[in-house]
Prior knowledge:
The structure is a single chain. The protein is of the alpha/beta class. The protein is built from 8 helices and 13 strands. The strands form 4 sheets. Strands 2-1-3-6-7 form a 5-stranded parallel sheet, sandwiched between helices. A 4-stranded antiparallel sheet has the order 8-9-10-11, covered by helices on one side. It is elongated, with a radius of gyration of 19 Å. It starts with a strand and ends in a 7-residue tail after the last strand. Residues 126-136 have low confidence and may be disordered.
Amino acid sequence: MNMNKIVIVDDEPSIVKMLQLVLQKEGFHQLYTAGTCQEALDTIARNGADIVLLDVMLPDGSGFELCSQIRQLGNPHILFLTAKVSDLDVLTGFAMGGDDYITKPFNPLEIAARIKARLRRIDEIGKPVARNNTVAQTVYSYGRFQLNEAAGELLVDGAVVTCPAQVFQLLLYFCKNPGIVFSKAQLYEAVWSIDGLGDDNTVMVHIRRIRERIEHDPSLPTHLLTVRGLGYKLAKEPINV
Length: 241
């Protein structure tokens, strides 16, 4: 039985019930629900959370604002459930600390698939490194930034920079595959571990979040480059602009 704690925050009883039934059938039994921002905060403070399914429009506030408050309580994976689909809405959600989003109406089995993919990723990260592996194999250095896989740290100009888990994983993937061009779909499948269920905006926003950390000017990147019509690649050496 899966003991990860999932909190469903939505004020539509039919959606909550549907998600509960499907997730229970998929083996998740530590399920908590809330219909308002305050109920969600109380529930998470009392029980903790590994995954939060978060509606954007709640009776007593915005799910975007609630997301940043949840981040003060812990670091669960936050997946927005939203009828809002504009680029600004997506950017706002990620800026407030969201990890992924899905638009209504949705297939609850897709939610279950995304949760399982996220938990698989967490399990892979948590596996101990063999003692005969050298630390040097887990540190990637590219110009002004270094990524320490074992320590889970990003250093830019010698200083540790905070990096959300999903942003870290995407940058790590690029660091392990320098000079290779990846499409948005390939990146989503590789990092989010789900084939064909991602949205281009998810990858694009996380690319921007990486650039905000490693580039002198995120609008004129020299490390993480856009290859027009193909995707993105990490330059083996920073380019001159």
